[in-house]
Amino acid sequence: MSRFKVSKFRHTEARPPRREAWINDIRVGTTSSCGNHIKSSCSLIAFNSDRPGVLGITPLESHGEDKRHVAYLGCHSDLVTDLDFSPFDDFLLATGSADRTVKLWRLPSPGQALPLLPGIVLGPEELPVEVLQFHPTVDGVLVSAAGRAVKVWDAAKQQPLTELAAHGDLVQSAVWSRNGVLVATACKDKQLRIFDPRARAEAFQSTQAHENSRDSQLAWTGIQEHLVSTGFNQMREREVKLWDTRFFSSALASLTLDTSPRVSKRKCAIVEQWGLGARAAAGHPEGSGC
């Protein structure tokens, strides 16, 4: 027996779905932002269309011609910078925008008319909303970042539960840990910070994540203390780093990828495979869509 552990991903191969499962002839937006441009619940897919402030909504599972139907939700007066489905409700969608607001939408079942107005509006903030994410274990709570400000919201009361200490520059990513205890943030000041919002507003840990200030993204792994970051080094090479919050002074591992003159989250994204507890970094060429 080999003394080395064999990786379960050694022979992993990506295979496209059958053509009849494709969603064809849709037009997506190409504007960059720090947030997500496509998200899915267990029932719906939402994505940025080619019209600023308008999302495309389509069923995740359907058959025949129904699969090709995309409805459009006019949700903001400016670019939708990030979006997220509630982990407790497949039809509750949160959207953040360059119009400085966060909106919550109650979406209907496929085939029914989309709402004209949001159920809840949070803000306006002083600067465009960059990123947002629902709390993974508490219904109706979400985190959002606008400029240097990061807030944890009680959506039902339409007011912040707490505002984290101001960052040194634009916040590029804000993500909850799997158990919902911690919030990790990546910032244009190159610092990776860890907060416990219930205990205090200040970060209890911080370290330099990447040497370049261009967009950085974060995701917690299946191991509670482990965090993955993507970003750039001084040579403009894309990097992926693995962090352990118990030993935060340096990364556990670092992988350098190819060189690109400019990077955004769409071009160096973390793809999550929840069932396997795996993470993969996906790069996209300059100017590509979602």
TrEMBL record:
Residue ranges of every copy of the DUF1899 domain listed in the record: 3-64
Superkingdom classification of source: Eukaryota
InterPro entries: Coronin, DUF1899, WD40/YVTN_repeat-like_dom_sf, WD40_repeat_dom_sf, WD40_rpt
Principal localisation: cytoplasm
Molecular function GO terms recorded: actin binding
Keyword Repeat set for record: yes
Pfam families: DUF1899 (PF08953), WD40 (PF00400)
Keywords, comma-separated and alphabetical: Actin-binding, Cytoplasm, Repeat, WD repeat
Localization in the cell: Cytoplasm
Start and stop residues of the WD repeats: 73-107, 164-196
GO CC, any one term: cytoplasm
Functional description taken from the UniProt entry: F-actin regulator involved in anterograde Golgi to endosome transport: upon ubiquitination via 'Lys-33'-linked ubiquitin chains by the BCR(KLHL20) E3 ubiquitin ligase complex, interacts with EPS15 and localizes to the trans-Golgi network, where it promotes actin polymerization, thereby facilitating post-Golgi trafficking. May play a role in the maintenance of the Golgi apparatus morphology.
Family according to the record: Belongs to the WD repeat coronin family.
Protein's UniProt name: Coronin
